[in-house]
Amino acid sequence: MKSIDIDEADLRLLDLLQTDAARSNQALAELAHLSPPTSLRRIKRLRETGLIEREVALLSPDRLAAHTGHGLTALVEITLERQGSEHLELFENRVVADTAVQQCYRVSPGPDFVLVVHTVDMPAYLALAQRLFTSEANVRNVKAFFSVKRAKFDPRLPLPLARTQ
User: Fold this and answer.
1) Quick one: CA dihedral 158, 155, 27, 48, positive or negative?
2) Could you read off the pLDDT of 134-159 as tens digits, one per residue?
3) What are the residues facing 141 on neighbouring strands?
4) Average pLDDT rounded to a whole number, residues 110-132
5) Is 95:131 a contact under the CB 8 Å cutoff?
6) Cα distance between residue 12 and residue 4, in whole Å
7) How far is residue 101 CA from its own chain's centroid?
């Protein structure tokens, strides 16, 4: 993999984008202590080099509840019976294809995977568990934790500022 040169200004921009990627270039430049053209050029380079993989929207489950049902977010630990690379890849491909799976991480030590899943309600979670975990003979253990609050991206909290030098 080719080495990517980044400096403190790039790190400030990355921090700012991680807290709010919807900020205007003008606002990003001001907060990162850069000129707007420099900010734009640097962000374009960070995207082209792959440091910024993707920009996504964080949805508010509480506000969507009126349209989609209350919603249930679960953090799910999965341990496979067999951990050969082909088994890990097969399971990973299976779960990432499901729209209820928001994030999928291979982890070590402990379980083999940690998933973030979002379903409309508990019956929908049970259907997901049946579809992805219990019908799969290679799953040895499933441990689910159900979210009662998402604190990190609480819109009532102020956005953190970028790194300072």
Assistant:
1) positive
2) 876 799 999 999 998 887 776 666 65
3) 79
4) 94
5) no
6) 16
7) 10
Q: State how far the Cα of 23 lies from the Cα of 7, in Å rounded to an integer.
A: 21
Q: Are 52 and 81 in contact (CB under 8 A)?
A: no
Amino acid, res. 100: A
At 33, which amino acid appears?
Answer: H
What is the rounded distance in angstroms from the CA atom of residue 134 to the CA atom of residue 112?
A: 16
Q: How far apart are CA 47 and CA 39, in angstroms?
A: 12
Cα separation, 146 vs 70, in Å, equals: 13
Query: Minimal CA–CA distance to 59: which of 118, 147, 137, 142?
Result: 118
The two structure tokens encoding residue 135: 């019908």
pTM value?
Answer: 0.73
Read off the amino acid at residue 138. Answer: N
Q: Are 138 and 82 in contact (CB under 8 A)?
A: yes
